TrEMBL record:
Protein name: Cyclase
Species of the source: Streptoalloteichus hindustanus
Highest taxon of source: Bacteria
Boundaries of every Metallo-beta-lactamase domain copy: 26-210
Family matches, as CDD domains: metallo-hydrolase-like_MBL-fold (cd16282)
């Protein structure tokens, strides 16, 4: 069974909700509370996990009945599958235009890649409000900023949520901590530029999309940037993204990062980007599954 979630108060208003070990579909979420409403950052992969998230929010806030605004950091299902529960409770869902389009066409569970029997009801919300520019939300006594990323990065529709009062930055999957990032739906070079942009926030705490919360001065941004740079550099010097030497090098350089099968998929992404041809997503996923030695990846959610 998955490990117990961790609820960490990072300041008077901001709280992180961390689902160990941060691997496949075990994302982080969180919330920022005011006297009038609450921003919940992302939902979870399954109906049950999202209900647990919302129950934890209610149990750890002084205003459990305050209206909810869910800000989705990107479109991937581990962060968005529970959004319907927010609107069913009378709340609002925010996302970038690109992310909202993907969420509305879901849910996307990729049964050819993942085996899971515990999704529950993860039908998408009937409406998602879209943002194209930074949005400052008055929560009552404090504000939260929902800021779209300019251009493709982890995906083509990322955003971050920033709480200046507590110095907490929720990055979604722009950052992962101890987990191999996955770049199938964005731009590695754009992602690198976005990481540089993240360093401009005067953050004290970073809540990554997966893995432990970290103080902002502990070097998580440059660690992820080093990995993305390595992918692009390696792709420029190998003829075949399936070159086993590249995969072995990645596993040796980042031996403690979980979900190592993602390295080969990322090499496919980098090779297509560097050499200027369309990514064969199905081929990248096939190579990733081959790296696991299994027909599908079994999810214990």
């Amino acid at each position: 069974m998955p490990a117990q979630v961790s609820v960490s108060r990072l300041g008077p208003r901001a709280t992180a909700y961390v689902q160990p070990d941060g691997g496949w579909f075990l994302n982080n979420a969180g919330w920022i509370t005011g006297s009038e409403r609450t921003v919940v950052v992302d939902t979870c992969a399954t109906e049950t996990r999202t209900r647990r998230l919302l129950d934890a929010l209610a149990a750890h806030t002084a205003t459990p009945r305050a209206p909810l605004v869910a800000a989705l950091t990107h479109a991937h299902g581990d962060h968005t599958n529970g959004a319907r529960l927010v609107t069913d409770a009378g709340g609002t869902v925010l996302a970038t235009e690109a992310a909202a389009e993907v969420v509305a066409s879901g849910p996307h569970t990729y049964p050819s890649v993942f085996a899971c029997t515990t999704w529950g009801d993860i039908s998408p919300p009937e409406t998602t409000e879209t943002i194209t520019a930074p949005l400052r939300l008055d929560l009552g006594g404090t504000t939260a900023e929902v800021i779209p990323v300019t251009g493709p990065a982890h995906t083509d529709g990322d955003l971050v949520v920033w709480h200046p009062d507590d110095g907490v930055l929720f990055t979604g999957d722009l950052l992962s901590h101890g987990v191999v990032p996955l770049g199938l739906h964005g731009s590695l070079s754009g992602w690198l530029s976005t990481l540089d942009w993240l360093t401009g926030f005067d953050a004290r705490w970073i809540v990554p999309g997966h893995g432990p919360v970290t103080p902002a001065d502990q070097g998580l941004v440059p660690k992820v940037a080093e990995y993305l740079t390595w992918l692009l550099d390696t792709a420029s010097r190998v003829q075949d993204p399936n070159d086993p030497r590249a995969d072995r090098e990645a596993r040796a350089r980042w031996p403690h990062w979980i979900d190592a099968e993602r390295h080969v998929a990322n090499l496919h992404v980098a090779h297509a980007e560097v050499h200027g041809y369309p990514l064969d997503t199905a081929g990248a996923l096939k190579a990733m599954l081959a790296a696991t030695g299994e027909e599908t990846i079994s999810l214990d959610l």
